[in-house]
């Protein structure tokens, strides 16, 4: 149990003193980039899915 307590105390101390946290503006720009990239990827997958569905409908209706 002592090892766990020491580990937790050391972890908290390291987070407080040794970690360099990004500025809020950097977090906002990164979040915006991730959001835009996710939307573009979702639209791309949606277009591919729509095209594939239409191709399969056309293929199966030809028989």
From TrEMBL:
Topology in membrane: Single-pass membrane protein
Top-level taxon of the source organism: Bacteria
Any one GO biological process: intracellular protein transmembrane transport
Gene from which this protein is expressed: secE
Localization: Cell membrane; Membrane
Job description of the protein: Essential subunit of the Sec protein translocation channel SecYEG. Clamps together the 2 halves of SecY. May contact the channel plug during translocation.
Family listed: Belongs to the SecE/SEC61-gamma family.
Predominant location: membrane
Transmembrane portions of the chain: 32-52
GO molecular function: protein transmembrane transporter activity
Name recorded for this polypeptide: Protein translocase subunit SecE
Quaternary organization: Component of the Sec protein translocase complex. Heterotrimer consisting of SecY, SecE and SecG subunits. The heterotrimers can form oligomers, although 1 heterotrimer is thought to be able to translocate proteins. Interacts with the ribosome. Interacts with SecDF, and other proteins may be involved. Interacts with SecA.
UniProt-listed InterPro entries: SecE_bac, SecE_sf, Translocase_SecE/Sec61-g
Keywords carried by this UniProt record: Cell membrane, Membrane, Protein transport, Translocation, Transmembrane, Transmembrane helix, Transport
Species of the source: Rhodocytophaga rosea
HAMAP family: SecE
Any single Gene Ontology cellular-component annotation: plasma membrane
């Amino acid at each position: 149990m002592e090892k766990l307590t020491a580990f937790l105390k050391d972890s908290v101390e390291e987070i407080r003193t040794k970690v360099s946290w990004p500025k809020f503006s950097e977090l906002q720009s990164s979040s915006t980039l991730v959001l835009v990239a996710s939307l573009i990827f979702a639209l791309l997958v949606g277009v591919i899915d729509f095209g594939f569905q239409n191709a399969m409908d056309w293929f199966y209706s030809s028989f």
